[in-house]
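To the structural biology subgroup,

Please find below the input and predicted structure for CubicO group peptidase (Beta-lactamase class C family), which we are adding to the shared reference set this quarter. The sequence is reproduced verbatim from the submission form. If anyone notices a discrepancy with their own records, reply to this email rather than editing the shared folder directly, so we keep one authoritative version.
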Amino acid sequence: MRRIYYLFALVLIGTSSLLSACKYGRFVWYNFADLNDYKIFPKRELKASTTPFVFHRANIETHPTGTKFEDKEVSFEDFLKETKSVAFLVIRNDSILYERYLDKYEESSIVPSFSMAKSVTSMLIGCAIDDGLIGSVQDPISKYVPEMAKNGFDKVTIEHVLQMTSGIKFNEGYYNPFGEVASFYYGTDLRKDTEKLKLEAEPGKDFAYASGNTQILGLVLERVLNGKTITEYLDEKIWKPIGMEYDASWSIDRKEDGIEKTFCCLNARARDFAKLGRLYLNKGNWDGQQLVPVDWVKESTKVDSTGGSYKRYQYQWWLPTENGDFAAQGILGQYIYVNPDKNLVMVRLGHKVSANWFKEFVRLAKEY
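Predicted structure (tokenized):
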């Protein structure tokens, strides 16, 4: 009996080790994106600034009014609870007007960005062009990743992947263990998986949201940085200059010689996410220092439907309306929403997305 017990234990340990070592094992074990995912992937660290920027707190907190949830009028705080929010910030004129944390989360709690990282990757592409590392958005991907030319990427430009009009074949379904996005999220060889991507449509014709586009941008960035990691470049160009208050991290695909999951997985705190919104609210300028080119911010947040692009999406940023507001967005309803007319930044982090969040942001902005 004891032998059987030990044999079972050995099999269980062996199976667990095998599962943890492969993408399908990760998928079976963790299944779907979760707020604790920053704990399960290897990462590169981002350190807090020694001279952090701190938002002022308004003398009088401005309470958002109630809203509807499932056809019932509820208070805004109940709305946050019902929609599984864990953090919500409203910042105007650099003052925190409203700040709430729920479900045992607090100001210092780490939350993964998920696809909000796409907008940060776009920032870095803009910086790399400004630094002369990348020629222009009209350069073909194959100029920087020659291995992808055989799959048609000599016809796909950097702008195509920024606009999600590349025409790549990519299954964005997280529930499919054999789909590309699950492979990218849980896999351990992102470079190889990215280089293998193929086209299923002509570039520049139609918008089709696919995380593979942003990982292509990550691969381009890695190639032009000449040995510097993407995390190091982020730290140098943005993280330290805007005075982040807390340490953070960017998840990578594997511990040894990994590459950043540029389509997702920047792990930080709500107030520091808000600073990314403040940077773009001020057209890439941080207290007199131009960190991201003005023209890049403009191109990233303008309404444009030419070249097959979607008027609600530009350069990895979402555009909720045609009135100049824009947002970074993640799969579980992570948002950095910016309304320049109101000089307003809102951050919402949570366990699940609500179909009405953009509508709610626009409504709240009008109140402020």
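Summary notes: The longest strand covers residues 85-92. The first helix runs from residue 2 to 21.

Regards,
Lab coordination
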